[in-house]
């Protein structure tokens, strides 16, 4: 059996609180295979973003095992690209320069930075806006730049925390289609946090529903829809049935709070 791209075993996280430690994540066990697209869903407060932040190396944890390709995760790394809901672009740099900035931090030469940034700006279909500043870009365009930047240093894994949550419905669908196209072409492992169950079903190979009190894995769903995905699938009986099952699991997980 091949080594999982991501392996989480018995992971627990506590936060300090006025009445004692707050148990944020309890006994999380999760494996992601190479090139797998997995979404985390659940009610607010179930620990989805906390878990993704721990995988990104931006937060620590108190107990358990966290491995990528069999090696411990001890902090942020170039093997993991991260995209948040906020675009986190540098306003004084153009779209292409924002991508180049990340590559320079990775130690690449000026020529390499320029060529790789240009290729990734083209990948997210922003060639015409390569020299535009963030203030001149729409929300969807800014998120395209953020995705280009995260992919530019060729991470093995892409971690995305509600990346399309601030976008209007039409732009969100466009970004979902773009992400599936990029994922199908480049085949990397994706861990995706979303509150949108339709989005999770549309994008994922597997959906993990989390419960609250403390945050824990409540249910798992394998998405059997064929690829490549398209928006017509959303109206299919199989899509609607799975969406209902995931929603039911989220509702059950939000009520099943351990006191």
TrEMBL record:
GO terms for molecular function: ATP binding; ATP hydrolysis activity. Signal peptide: none annotated. Gene3D superfamilies: P-loop containing nucleotide triphosphate hydrolases (3.40.50.300). Transmembrane segments: none annotated. It holds the Pfam family ABC_tran. SMART domains: AAA. Residues 6-237 form the ABC transporter domain. It comes from the Bacteria. Keywords: ATP-binding, Nucleotide-binding, Transport. Belongs to the ABC transporter superfamily. PANTHER family: ALIPHATIC SULFONATES IMPORT ATP-BINDING PROTEIN SSUB, TAURINE IMPORT ATP-BINDING PROTEIN-RELATED. This is NitT/TauT family transport system ATP-binding protein.
């Amino acid at each position: 059996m091949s080594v999982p791209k991501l392996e989480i075993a018995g992971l627990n996280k506590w936060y300090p609180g006025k009445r004692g430690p707050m148990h944020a994540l309890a006994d999380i066990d999760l494996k992601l295979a190479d090139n797998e697209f997995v979404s985390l869903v659940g009610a607010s407060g179930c620990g989805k973003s906390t878990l993704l932040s721990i995988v990104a190396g931006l937060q620590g944890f108190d107990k358990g095992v966290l491995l990528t390709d069999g090696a411990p995760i001890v902090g942020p790394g170039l093997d993991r690209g991260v995209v948040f809901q906020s675009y986190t672009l540098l306003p004084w740099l153009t779209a292409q320069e924002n991508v180049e900035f990340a590559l320079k931090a990775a130690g690449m030469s000026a020529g390499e930075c320029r060529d790789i940034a240009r290729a990734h700006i083209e990948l997210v279909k922003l060639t015409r806006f390569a020299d535009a500043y963030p203030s001149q870009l729409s929300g969807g365009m800014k998120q395209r730049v953020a995705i280009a930047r995260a992919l530019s240093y060729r991470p093995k894994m892409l971690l995305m925390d509600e990346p399309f949550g601030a976008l209007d419905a039409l732009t969100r669908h466009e970004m979902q289609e773009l992400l599936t196209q990029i994922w199908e072409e480049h085949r990397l492992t994706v861990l995706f946090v979303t509150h949108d169950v339709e989005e999770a079903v549309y994008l994922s190979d597997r959906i993990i529903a989390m419960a609250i009190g403390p945050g824990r894995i409540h249910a798992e769903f394998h998405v059997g829809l064929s690829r490549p995905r398209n928006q017509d699938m959303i109206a299919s009986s199989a899509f609607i049935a799975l969406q209902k099952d995931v929603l039911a699991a989220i509702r059950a997980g939000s009520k099943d709070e351990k006191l």
